[in-house]
Amino acid sequence: MKEISSLCVFCGSRTGNDPAHEQIARQLGEAMASRQIRLVYGGGRIGLMGIVAGAIFNNGGQITGVIPDFLMHMEIGNDQIGELIVTDSMHTRKAKMFELSDAVVILPGGIGTLEEAFEVITWKQLRQHDKPIVLVDANSYWAPFTKLIENIIEGGFAHEKVLELYSVVGSVDEIFRAFVNAPEPDEVVLTSHL
């Protein structure tokens, strides 16, 4: 695996009800800054997005935000703590975030974060990339997601190797170990249903 110099973080534009989510977002930002890993994120000042970005900024780290024009004011585009790229659509936003990063971390979030998780995992299943993908399961937030994937496999709609397309960890330290241990996507995840 190549060295991780930039990390795409998908996460909520809200902080959620569990303080553990804010804590893990702050810890991730601090860890990224200490490792000199650039944050590539959704460009907002609010929610978990703002907490990760603020922690990196406060610790001297580098940040690139990517936000679509129509959300610039709704998510309060964060143009004060690093580079901010304004795109014409959500599709362009996700593609740009992915293009600029070496790996993906997914923190708790809402429907948009869930959609981003599924899309980047699907791209890997389709062998469009081999970047590590890590879900941070603070207080079992992603347990229903992992159960859904297991149900998809049990239902015969995916090969069991799809479980290797991403890692689920419980702490920030485990994220960086998961990057090192991420397997290459097995061709069978694509070819088994063709």
Task: Describe the protein's topology.
Elements: E1 6-10, H1 19-34, E2 38-41, H2 47-58, E3 63-68, E4 83-87, H3 90-99, E5 103-106, H4 111-125, E6 133-136, H5 143-154, E7 167-169, H6 172-181, H7 188-191
Parallel strand pairs: 1-2, 1-5, 2-3, 3-4, 5-6, 6-7
Helix pairs in contact: 1-2
Shape: globular
Q: How many structural units, i.e. domains?
A: 1
Major β-sheet annotation: 7 strands, parallel
Mean pLDDT value? 92
CATH class (first level) name: Alpha Beta
Low-pLDDT residue spans = none
* Number of DSSP helical runs: 7
Q: Strand order, biggest sheet?
A: 4-3-2-1-5-6-7
CATH architecture identity: 3-Layer(aba) Sandwich
Please tag this protein with its features.
single chain, 194 residues, alpha/beta, Rossmann fold, seven-stranded parallel sheet, 7 strands
